[in-house]
Design a protein that fits this description.
By secondary structure, the protein is of the alpha+beta class. It is about 35% helix and about 10% strand.
Length: about 120
């Protein structure tokens, strides 16, 4: 009885992997191996390097026009402390279609590639 139970328990992962593959959901295994098995409890901004990517063609990019009251690279200490506390690496504020503030935590900068998560929805909206 114990031998059958152990065999069943050992067979469960194999059956799970087979079902994911058969149903076209093998990407779940890829995601698990590229996050949890890399030591992260969930997706993170640097995991893009473990996944296939593609370039999306774009028109001619135009820099944001600076806001007349733009605050440059210096943000209030409270905001940079909040960013550090929450592991944020970038801050961009657009007001009335103009760049009000832009700040990056080293080693990140304006050219850094990261996952955007929900940021993309905000920019598109």
């Amino acid at each position: 009885m114990l031998k059958k139970l152990l065999l069943f328990i050992l067979a469960l992962p194999v059956i799970g992997v087979a079902l994911l593959s058969i149903t076209g959901h093998a990407y779940i295994l890829t995601a698990l191996s590229r996050t949890y098995l890399q030591g992260h409890p969930t997706a993170n901004i640097d995991d893009h390097q473990f996944f296939d990517t593609r370039t999306i063609a774009a028109g001619n990019a135009q820099p944001w026009e600076p806001h007349p009251e733009a605050i440059g690279a210096e943000l209030p200490a409270e905001l940079t402390a909040f960013m550090a506390e929450n592991d944020a690496v970038a801050f961009v504020a657009i007001h009335n279609g103009q760049l009000f503030a832009e700040y990056y935590v080293p080693p990140y900068d304006a050219q850094s590639r990261t996952n955007s998560f929900s940021m993309a929805k905000t920019v598109v909206t």
